[in-house]
Specification:
- By secondary structure, the protein is an alpha+beta fold.
- It has one domain.
- Strands 1-2-3-4 form a four-stranded antiparallel sheet.
- A hairpin with a 2-residue loop joins strand 1 and strand 2.
């Protein structure tokens, strides 16, 4: 009879150990998922910045071939203040020229959440 009374406390101890282990594992998995979602969000903003910079380069190439009066300029894509680019051109479009475009993605329209820079030479 004495052994049965001692074994009753072991069940509670095992339940506490198992619940603690499962809680620790689930918290680790949750932190991995949250960290991954932040990484993916930052990557998406980076891609948007890259395409804003690419738009600036395309605009600069168009200006060089059709409207050479506007060499250094800023702009946004479709008038949306979230997608901003700034272009500088080193040269006069007829000789070897270096173009640099900095693209920014601004979540709130004012502060950039990410930026990328592209430069080309021809």
């Amino acid at each position: 009879m004495k052994n049965n009374n001692l074994e009753k406390g072991v069940a509670i101890y095992l339940v506490v150990i198992i619940v603690s282990a499962l809680s620790a594992v689930s918290l680790n998995i949750a932190s991995i998922i949250i960290g991954g979602s932040k990484l993916v969000s930052n990557y998406a903003d980076s891609v948007k910045s890259f395409y804003a910079a690419d738009t600036g380069i395309e605009h600069a190439l168009y200006n060089c071939f059709y409207n050479s009066s506007d060499l250094d300029f800023d702009g946004s894509i479709g008038g949306d203040s979230k997608y901003y680019y700034s272009v500088t051109i080193d040269g006069d479009c007829s000789s070897p020229t270096i173009m640099a475009s900095k693209g920014e993605y601004r979540i709130d329209g004012t502060n950039p959440s990410s930026s990328r820079k592209i430069s080309i030479s021809y």
